Amino acid sequence: MRNVVLLFIVCISFAVSQDVKVDTLESLGTEFFENLEIDSDIGEIIEHLEFVRIELNRVTIDDLIEIPFISRDIAVKIISHRDKIGGFESKEQVFDIPDVDDLVKLFLYRNGYIQKPKLNFQARVRTLRRANLKEFTKDFDVNFKTYQSARIAFSNFSGGLVIEKDYGERKINDLTHFYVDYKSGGFFREFIVGSYTLMFGQGILMWRPVALGKGSDVILPAIRSSENYVSGYASTDEVKPLFGGAIKTKFKSFEALLFYSKTNLPTSLDTTGLVRYIDFSGINITRGFSLSRKLIGGVLSFSKQNFYTGVLIYHEKFGNSFSKSISRPFGSGNFYYGFEYGVYFWNLNFFGEVASSQFLYFSVVSGLNAVFKDLELVFQYRNMNSNFTTINGNIFGERYGEAWNEEGFYSGLRLKMGIVKLSGYYDVFKFPRSNLDATKNGVDYRVEISLRVSRSIEVKLMRKEKTTIKGMEIYDEFGRPRLVEGDEKRGNWRFEVENRFKDVAFRSRVEFIRREFGDVETGFLIYQGVKYQAFKFLRVYTRILFFRSDSYWSRIYVYEDDLDGVVSLIPLYGRGLRWYIVAKYNYGKNFSIQLKYGETFFANDESARNIFGVQLSVRF
Question: Are 497 and 485 within 8 A, CB to CB?
Fold first, then answer.
């Protein structure tokens, strides 16, 4: 009977369907986040995209490439089509842009406009509660997470504010970010005061706190084409955002950016008074040492339609010295230099960055993207020096959120053959400096085949495997432990079916995992999810899944539907069942309320965990 039920869950999505309805940001979330395997909250990307407004007839290439999934090649195609037709007369014309992915067209339609609105405003309040709902009001500091944000755009001005308290923190305003941004079309292009981020080149020295990593999209995350891009910051990272001011000017094809920042970082000191680590977790449960950090620098860049280059120079000064035992070689009082380039020739895009600390140590990222009619390729080489790193470094590589001590070569391929899509990557990497018990090198590959059975039914098969060499503990004949090198192999098989009706969509998945590292461990997951447009003003999402794994090391990650602006990437291990329901109610175009409730039952210890969330949003 159990096998019959599992078969029914997998196959129910093959029902006959009608027209398809697509929510752009939900589709983007599924496309980019569904297959990531990182313990990091990347919801701020989606939250940022929610507020992006695109004036279709005035937007520039530089404006478009600020969007994470739009490369310079795609931006050039959008602008070229607009110039060819003499401008857009209606938003629907974006669907006529040739050689551009449908998700990009949908995003332009969703967030674009022909006539610039006078005012945009969005406010959001969110509360999440974990643990037992029977004790809902108890332990506010431990079990509640709160979030308040507001964004506004009026004429050439825009601004943002975010206030957050994480689980375990006592103050409701434990984190606060705000900014005011002014943009114009003259010589002084942009001026920002408050919290902001700076992105340069491939992210060796400067990038946003979060970025897309290895996953289902094998091309775009490896291609970074942001030139001289500064942006106001109103999200939830506590360490990496800069705070101060930045001004950008432009004269013909040249742009110049000057910036200043002063922040305080949560750290811990050793017994000699030196900094032994920087706390990047963002959870301030205990009061530690506050380390001051000052930056001053600038960027000079030159760009044409098919070429850009730029130079970044800045000085960084910390208020205290670092211990020799710190895990990352952060300098104190150092100058940093970066050089970026991008060349577009025929169907080829050459891109890269070279960066240095004090002109003593160098790191490099270089790559090539080739685009043909139904085939796209990307190749990226990276060599991160082990003798220097920066707080804001964040390259595309094996180490998520860092730019340090890594050498690797990544290849990605995406091919379309009628109703069949093939995508995959192959990544070879090594870490020159490593402890005996740490990972030294490895190979990672992923292959996915997608078959469009009909207009609304899609079947996917995925195979992923990562093999690394790392230290492992064994025991000799006398029972004494010692460390030796061993191969860890982790492989996934996944089968998925998605079917979209007019008002309802089904997603079914079965996934297996096998981990070998001395012993063999396995994991298994099966789920059925439903998205239902109950009424024009009400959408409901629900999912039930069963999981089993031998331990945390054979865990399986799964992406969940959640409140807008929240990305839930859950690692499941042990043996149990999880279910959740999300309801999103829209009152007109200006007000929405969203609720989520979920429970996880563990068969091992007969325990249960639940989470409840509520969010209110106002937008006009």
Answer: no
Cα(322)–Cα(616) distance, rounded to whole angstroms? 44
Phi/psi at 187 (5° precision)? -65, -45
What are the percentages of helix, strand and coil residues in the chain, rounded to 5?
15, 55, 35
Secondary structure (H, E, C), 50-89: HHCCEECCCCCHHHHCCCCCCCHHHHHHHHHHHHHHCCCC
**Rounded distance between C-alpha atoms, residue 326 and residue 347, angstroms:** 45
Average pLDDT value for residue range 223-236: 79
pTM of the model: 0.85
Compute the half-sphere exposure of residue 164: CA atoms within 13 Å on the CB side of its CA: 18
Q: Rounded distance, CA 464 to CA 285, Å?
A: 37
pLDDT tens figures, 62-74? 778 777 778 777 8
pLDDT value, residue 523:
95
Look at strands 119-130 and 112-113 and give their pairing. Answer: unpaired
DSSP state of 559: E
Q: Please report which confidence band the pLDDT of residue 564 belongs to, taking 50, 70 and 90 as the band edges.
A: confident
Mind listing the pLDDT tens digit for each residue in 437-468? 778 899 999 999 999 998 889 999 999 999 99
Question: What are φ and ψ of residue 286, in 5° steps?
Answer: -115, 155
HEC string of 23-57 equals: CHHHHHHHHHHCCCCCCCCCHHHHHHHHHCCEECC
Taking the CA atoms of the chain, what radius of gyration do you get in angstroms? 25
